[in-house]
Amino acid sequence: MTSVNLRNNESQDSLLKRFRKKVVKSGVLSTVRRKRWFVSKSEQRRMDKKKAMRRIKRRQYTREAE
Asked: Can you give the pLDDT of all 66 residues of the chain as single tens digits?
């Protein structure tokens, strides 16, 4: 559970900003998004393979541009 305490003379905006940063850093949102739907292991492997191919192509493209 992520929580933040209000500091002395701290505005609500800065408190909310600190809370959002803490939530992002903890990885709660990414976990929830990932577990929102069931994905079989074969489907996950296929998605990971596609992601790796995109990453490799992007690296090759940036090296060619240099």
From this structure: 788 899 999 999 999 999 999 999 998 888 898 889 999 999 999 999 999 999 999 999 877 776
Q: How far apart are CA 55 and CA 63, in angstroms?
A: 13
What three-state secondary structure class fits 58? helix
Q: What secondary structure does DSSP assign to 8-45, as a single string?
A: TT--HHHHHHHHHHHHHHHTHHHHHHHTSS---HHHHH
For the entire predicted model, the pTM comes to: 0.53
> Could you tell me the residue ranges of all domains in the chain?
12-65
